[in-house]
Amino acid sequence: MAKSVDYLAMENGSYIPPRPKHPNFQRTRSFREIQGIISKMNPEVVKSVIQNGSSSTNNKSFVSDFPLCDYTLRLSCGGDEKNGVKYSTSPLTIFYNGTVSVFHVSPQKAEDILKFGEQAIHNSEINSHGQQYQYLTQSLNDLPITRRISLQRFLEKRRERLIMLSPYYFPTNNSNFNSSRKR
Amino acid sequence: MDGKKRIRLNRCCSSGGGGDGGGGGGSSSGAYDTVWECVIPYVQDARDREAVSVVCRRWYEIDRITRKHVTIALCYTATPQRLSRRFPQLESLQLKGKPRASMFNLIPEDWGGFVTPWVEEIVRSFGRMKVLHLRRMIVKDSDLELLATSTGKVLEVLRLDKCSGFSTDGLLRIGRLCRNLRSLFMEECSIIENDGEWLHELALNNTILENLNFYMTDLMKIASGDLELIARRCPSLVSMKISDCDISDLVGFFRAATSLEEFGGGSFSEPPGQVGEGVFNEQLERYAPVVFPPKLCRLGLTYLGKAEMPIVYPVASRLTKLDLLYALLDTEGHCLLLQRCPNLEILETRNVIGDRGLEVLAQSCKSMKRLRIERGADEQDMEDEEGVVSQRGLIALAQGCLQLEYLAVYVSDITNASLECMGAHSKNLRDFRLVLLDREERITDLPLDNGVRSLLMGCHKLRRFALYLRPGGLTDVGLGYIGKYSPNVRWMLLGYVGESDQGLLEFSRGCPSLQKLEMRGCCFSERALAMAALQLTALRYLWVQGYRASGNGRDLLTMVRPNWNIELIPSRQVYVQDQDGEKIMVEHPAHILAYYSLAGPRTDFPATVKPLDPNNFLDL
What we know:
heterodimer; A: alpha+beta; two-stranded antiparallel sheet; two-stranded antiparallel ribbon; elongated; B: alpha/beta; Monooxygenase; Leucine-rich repeat, LRR (right-handed beta-alpha superhelix); two-stranded parallel ribbon; 25 strands; globular; COI1_F-box (chain B); LRR_dom_sf (chain B); Transp_inhibit (chain B); Coronatine-insensitive 1 (chain B)
């Protein structure tokens, strides 16, 4: 099954990966796309690979004749950035079907990959509806059940009340609860 | 009115030579006209009036002149001028703005729903406007100023429900100038607070106030003395719901408010140190002087804990409505309190009530009519371990509370059997909303096809229905059942239901009464959504978030038709502060909003909302 990934942005370069055979693979903006790929992998393998990968000093990424994913997939490599702050990354090495690929990901993303792998066991057991179902599970992650604003505010205020009453609380300029603490 | 009656009446009118001839023509038709002019004003129900207005020209005119109240479910469906031309003698108006999803933080704040053009028209053309009810709209101080100065002598009821955009300065004008105000309601509004003067002005200028509500606002500069002043000067004060204000400061207020039937809000201070016997007594001593007025039967106390609960006991047996949404009771606390409330009809609380609390409710509160169980905190240590609702609680509820008319519940587990049980017992149910929480990985009994079918078949009075599940929660067959077995349902919210476009299309072949449809997290394509919108014969409002997009909205063109506005809120990235004060980025997937309108496309789009213009696709 030939799929390709352009994780080195080599579209304009000399290497042009073969076209994907799975047109339904949805392109979304999040790293969660990997869920579809990982779902076909044995999570034990992924775990052992990550353990091995963290001790690897190899920074190069290999591209073989049988690369892994849809070529439109964009993996965020080279570390995570949030508001200009980079998070430290380690290499994540994946051995699949005779290919070796190395990604530099943050510990959080590595955790995510593991979680997807574990989820995949559940999904594959009840998944008999193919791509549509996959879309549903993806969107479940992107569309969490949101709370009513009024409840949200109450739960935040309750949490703050408890913090204020803890033995280690140091009062800052927080006038929010003056009224509720009137004597 | 049934078909036969309508034909007879039609013949009466046409024989009298219809048109605007008034009492002209034969004397028999003149007599009929007079009769109808006397009778029709007593017909108040909106749908009856709708029927009246299409019988003949004469009746249309009578309805037009005598219509007292209009509800406009979305303010962009008509223009203010059209309203004043059609119903010049209106005395009461309800307007709604932002989609319901804005209550869940899903809609951009500047989406729209500006009340200014409506207030300007009210001041210009509606000299009799006594009641104004605005829901989820943007209201500015200048709007309140205009209302106060122009309609101040006439305005009796001002209801600002989940509105935003104004400050206490606007309220100051209302308090000072609206001397005939019986009811001022601002629950859950976002208000910019400059001072507490508005409340003082209200206290000084008003003696007929019956209803004051600023519950769930963040107003903090509230003087308990002003509340007491209002209670003393307004003998008709029946309902007061306030923001945070320590209950021990309200002793004087409660003593003065002798007609009070409803109270909500306030707050209790947290007992310092470890909770134990001594602290319990200390709290009780603090709050023991609080004596509720003799007619009080609707109560909600913010931050009410187990230590303070005994102050409710003297009135518990009288209570018809109890609000524990913002209380600090655990499951046991709920059980202890509810068993003392045999006359309870309305209860609002969080799922900390648990299955055990529902069992106590089912045993003790046989008059239960409305039950709302919201979602509590997710963190294990913040809520009671027992605080989850499942099929066990639902079954007890269905069997014990046969008068139930409204149920909204967040469950952690569910079975088909519990829904079947509701279908068998809850024959009075008009409004049913179920959300399956996503914390548990395994649910006892999915999909819910059969249970949902039994529920819908059994609860034939159902007018509102919401079902929010997860992938695998309801198959296409189940979705088809919803379409087939909900003849009277006017509003639906569906989340994560169905498996494919087939399910949606089957669903949309049914639902003959469905006027408003909201969907979230479904797997349907744009094309299927558009086709469903065309197939649902009564549909006038559609909102969707989470669907299979076609890239540029092209497939939505299928539902383009006259007077049908289609708008998109493209996907956004919003930065919010999480509980640790850190900025995190939240993805908001795209929304579709489509609705019938006589006003044409909006003219006040913010940057976040885009109309779907078929012309944009002509080049493609």
